[in-house]
Amino acid sequence: MSVILGIDPGLTRCGFGVVESRPGRRVALVDVGVIRSDPAADIAVRVHRISHEVERLIRRHRPRAVSVERVFAQQNLPSVMGVAHIIGAVMHLAGEAEIPLVLHTPSEVKAAVTGSGRADKSQVQHMVARLLGIDHVDGPPDAADALAVAICESFKPTASDTKAVAPAGETAAQRQWRLGRERGQANSKRTAGDAAKTGQWKMRRG
Asked: In the sheet that 2-8 helps form, which strands lie side by side, from edge to edge?
């Protein structure tokens, strides 16, 4: 069993979710919430406020990994910059604590939790609650999003997973995501092998 800290980065609201991985690809809720900062305050004060609380979470839960949702370019540049500041602060904290930090795209998170990279927020929230065995996730959507990011890292296939039979208790969504990753890895190996063969054929022909 291990603990994962998930972060849904934001300058005004930063969601956090802590889950415990259990055998059979199951997860349990440990902690969840949202860290807020005053929009009227100086940006340095806001980043410090959020990073201070994240540091407390790391010390309290001692996660084996910190999972953060990757930011993408949007039309609102100030918003993107604010999120980037928070991600940088979390990276610094994870580095100081010598804890691995992993970035996941929104589509990766959705696929891991629901089986579809195009799921909407309500579907993600529903599946997060279902996977954790609770009725619903309290608080703003940022909290459920952070839990989804943590669950995504918890379910991430390892080298041994790709060789093993589907674990007991694996949901249909989790199985679909795992098999998709396996197919992608197999295709990458096949493409590399084809490229190598083509290169050898050209050398012989030349």
From this structure: 26-36, 13-22, 2-8, 65-69, 101-104
Q: Given the residues 20, 108, 142, 153, select the one marked as catalytic.
A: 142
Token representation of residue 100: 């691995």
Euclidean distance between CA atoms 71 and 3, whole angstroms = 23
Query: Does residue 12 share a domain with residue 100?
Result: yes
Determine whether 8 is an active site residue.
yes
Sequence-separated contacts (24+) of 124-128 with Cβ below 8 Å: 124/148, 127/173
At residue 72, the pLDDT reads 73
Catalytic hit among 20, 69, 145, 153: 69
Q: How many whole angstroms separate alpha carbon 15 and alpha carbon 36? A: 9
Catalytic member of 8, 108, 145, 153: 8
> How many structural domains comprise the chain?
2
Question: What does the pLDDT read at residue 129?
Answer: 97
Averaged pLDDT in 10-residue chunks for the chain of 206 residues = 94 97 94 97 98 98 97 74 95 98 96 95 96 95 97 78 52 63 58 52 48
Residues 162 and 197 in one domain: yes
**Residue 206 lies in domain:** 157-206
